[in-house]
Sequence to fold (366 residues):
Amino acid sequence: MSFLRNCWYVAGWADELIEGQLLPRTVLNEKIVLFRDSKGTLQALQDRCPHRFVPLHLGRLHNDRIQCAYHGLSFDCSGACVHNPHGNGAIPNAARVRVYPMQERHGFAWIWMGEPDRADPALITDFSAMDPQTAYIGKSYLHVKANYVLETDNILDLSHIEFLHGNSLGSAAVAQGVIEVEQHGEVVHSKRTTHNEQLTPDLERLRGIPSGQRVDRWLDVRWNAPSNLLLNSGYTPSGEPRENGRSVYVAHVFTPETAGTTHYWFGIAFPKELGEEGRRLAEENIQWLLQPFTTEDMPMLQAQQEVIGDQDFWALKPVLLVSDGGAVRARRLLEKMIQQEQNMTNTRHESPSLSMETALQRSENP
Fold:
């Protein structure tokens, strides 16, 4: 499976990376070791010693260098081998590992999997609504045995919450909600609005809505390639304008581990102006969300993946519904971006070979 490479992926919550500790993680089928150096900067190296291919995360981090546990070669943050304890200490030219650009922003650790010189921090998806400097963030993680695009489909089409989450997130009004799909450049918005909706008792409690109060609800999802989604979920008493209601932001971030497995980081934000109440709500809400995500979404997506296997999604000829608009738009856009990236890469790789071929023809036909 092809992935979009020249973009920023989430490699974890930023506070997962602790100074002095090595964290192994697989992203886009590549094994990587993550750590925070002595200056607090995030670092990422290929998790494979070039000597005997032992994972570097099994080694020791000291003075911002990773010492391989097998034969003691040490690598610095540039990926270069800086110490060879054997013989006269000469370091082979090939003794280095790949380095991946990293950035820390809005509470996430971001990694660039493509060409390092194109790693522009300005391209990082805006998750300022989830910034721990301004909001209390309830955070969690799931490892899902399903393709990451199936995950984004799931969030871009929230009509499923009426049926899959009927006792928690859904209601009988969701599937009949008003749907709007917008695309602005390479950003897709999938918006769903319901009217005169009766929420579940749990949602009423967690959102501070009086029991039995009928509401109008909006579920506005923003998708940024390749798989970073931000949900603005809000409520207002039925018939009242949106500005009279309240909303919360929920991040759904999917990073492909492999073609069939996905890292899923999700979080919910409450403004720090709420004080300790905001902290409590963040923790209570994330613990509550973990239940439907783990026991309802995850088994469904994993069952879906088992049926699809390694078959092409479109080759299976899925029957499309009106609610699929946002998911289809995002899928098509992502496929286009991946194809464009591959075309550019192939063009750069083919140019030298074409030049050589031309030179050979000229030498044979002076």
User: Anything to note?
Assistant: The first strand starts at residue 8 and ends at 13. The longest helix spans residues 325-364. The chain has two domains: 8-123, 128-334.
